[in-house]
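hi!! sorry for the late reply, been swamped w classes. u asked for the two structures so here they r. pasted raw, havent cleaned anything up. first the sequence of the first protein and right below it the tokens
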Amino acid sequence: SFRRVLIKSSASTLTKALRSVDVLSSLSALQLQRLHDILTEVTYADGEAIISQGDTGKQFYIIVEGDVLCTRREDPVNLAEEPTELMRLRQYQYFGERALLHDAPRAATVTATMEGALWAMARSSFRRVLIKSSASTLTKALRSVDVLSSLSALQLQRLHDILTEVTYADGEAIISQGDTGKQFYIIVEGDVLCTRREDPVNLAEEPTELMRLRQYQYFGERALLHDAPRAATVTATMEGALWAMARSSFRRVLI
């Protein structure tokens, strides 16, 4: 559309808008350029609720055209309560940025006060840009895995391309001791706790803490080689994301 060409051609303006967002302010010029390329256009009608207080956020928005009104209720489910006006936002201002980081409920409702358009960015796309643009960091993480350390640069690049993103909730068991392993994981965001029971089927036994793992550390690497049962349970200690690699995909890269 004409609007898409007009806004995309104003790269410096869009870069400035992206740079003004706290969670994006430290990104490199190349990363910001990649964010330009994944933005999608969303149009809205006058009076339309673009996001609603209490809903789970998955996208972040920059206003291209039009104005919006941000409101909030003390009790989000009490629709009889008169919402409080928080602020009005206009062209190149933004909202919903917390959705780039986690699944927190929307803190306010944002309603269009006229017809307009937004650039939208999904959290999954944002994370792919951050990790894929840090190829050297990801290569280093892969190279640190014993079973991958002897691979060529070309093979490691192919591994980059087959990694898939998995998100998890605080307290979620990502893998469980005794289960058959099919995937290997690298932590993108968040921390995990590794625990083990002497008797995996005795849930009354208090598990022993083995270690905590953080960003760019890994677990489950034995699953790349064989069907051995998981030696430990790995549980998320906060919301986060992983890059996952299935054994079948790993083997295709090696062949």
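now the second protein. again sequence first, tokens right under
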Amino acid sequence: RSMPRIGSLGLVLLLCSNAAAFSPQATLLPSFVSSVRPNKFLAIMKAKETQPSPTEYGQAHGTSRRSIISGGVGALLTVGSVPKAGNAFFGIGEQFQVYKEEDVGEFDGKLPRYGSKDIMRKKKHGTSEEAVMRDLRWGCDRELADKICNFNRHFAEHAGYFAKTKWLSEVGEAETTYFDSVTGKPLFIAPRGRSFAEFVRESKVHGWPSFRDEEVVWDNVRCLRDGECVSLTGTHLGHNLPDKRGNRYCINLVSIAGKPSA
């Protein structure tokens, strides 16, 4: 199918206004061509002072395949299915492949803290040296976790996956430390700087555990220039999706359901 020719900004605005019109069984994957880089997409959303929804950012779930190709300048919109793992393995597309990595340089104190794309180089087990540990916390699925953590750069557990686990029933008002599902190293500590209710509310609104700057263990976590959030040992965690309140790290629960290393 084809759509009238429209500019890239017009397409983004169209996504925002009409996302709800798509079937919940469809995966929405905005794949920007090289002239529209992911950081430009985020800049557009930030200028609007709105938070990209999972649909807008390509993490909405689905099983059917269809495509809509725009003749507009600067964008290609694809709606379709992606590989599944227990109907819970969905993705963001390949738009980050065209992003040119910038020099990380010295840490200037501004968050997020960036890391080199070399962190995610191929290792013995995907992007990690070993598989996800057994007996993940909260009943998280190990097979799904291993695919997302180690053999993936753009995919996510489906929105609201955590509701099927014991996560919210086993954490509470006190700070909880979230450990890497591969290495057991601490990655996030929440809630910090806000109440538990606020932390849960934000996570439910967006569909994934959502952390803020002060809740990240920066000794073990980095962001790449395309927004991907990873552990220093190569575990894919999620993405940084900034909003008007600042950085928001949208993280897969299966990536942070590990038990502390000895």
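hope this helps!! also noticed smth abt the second:
The chain has five helices and 13 strands.
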